[in-house]
Design goal:
Number of strands: 0
Keywords: Repeat, Signal, TPR repeat
Oligomer: single chain
Number of helices: 10
Largest sheet: none
Organism: Saccharospirillum salsuginis
Protein name: Tetratricopeptide repeat protein
Pfam families: TPR_12
Strand content: under 5%
Distance between the termini: 66 Å
Helix content: over 70%
Length: about 190
């Protein structure tokens, strides 16, 4: 008979268990977010930060009511399937019904980005950040837009803002390194 040693629970499993115990209805106004952002600031490494990040995303993506939740779920499914026009229509409906739901705006920004409509995406990001100024996902999207538009200095500034909120964001750190190389190449 194989015995199991008692040990530390993997952080991803602890995060999942915690998420399952939390109530379903939430959004960017959820009281738990302040504590999670404090933990994100104090996390000692990228691994622990990633668990906290997932907990934040779980809260952000939980719509404020059942109808909004259905639209969010359908829109996210359309995104997973690459049905970008349908996703755009669903998220447009969602922001019309719930204009104060930050993640609805962020998802719409993502769809507009994928469709190459950077102006609309930036407008959606602006709405997201008005509702949730700590939205590191929206900021990352804005940095990606500036990078795509050939504005590496502006992109670096935005990714640095992400690092102020989420110090162990490996994606932002990597993006800054790549953009700094672009700036050096231009200077040569």
């Amino acid at each position: 008979m194989k015995t199991h040693r008692a040990g530390k629970i993997p952080t991803w499993l602890a995060g999942l268990a915690l998420a399952l115990l939390w109530p379903v209805a939430a959004d960017q106004n959820d009281d738990r977010l302040d504590g999670l952002f404090d933990k994100l600031q104090d996390a000692p490494n990228a691994s622990q930060s990633a668990v906290i990040e997932q907990q934040i995303w779980l809260i952000w993506t939980q719509a404020p009511n059942d109808e909004a939740e259905r639209l969010m779920d359908r829109g996210m499914q359309a995104m997973r399937l690459g049905e970008w026009t349908l996703a755009e229509r669903l998220f447009d409906q969602l922001v019309e019904k719930e204009p104060k739901f930050a993640e609805a705006w962020n998802k719409l920004a993502t769809v507009h980005y994928v469709l190459g409509d950077y102006n609309e995406s930036m407008s959606d990001i602006e709405q997201t950040l008005k509702l949730e100024p700590r939205h590191f996902g929206a900021l990352s999207g804005l940095g990606s837009i500036f990078a795509r538009l050939g504005q590496p200095a502006a992109a670096i500034r935005v990714f640095e803002q992400v690092l102020e909120i989420y110090p162990h964001s490996q994606d932002s750190q990597h993006s800054i390194e790549q953009l700094q190389e672009q700036l050096l190449d231009r200077a040569i």
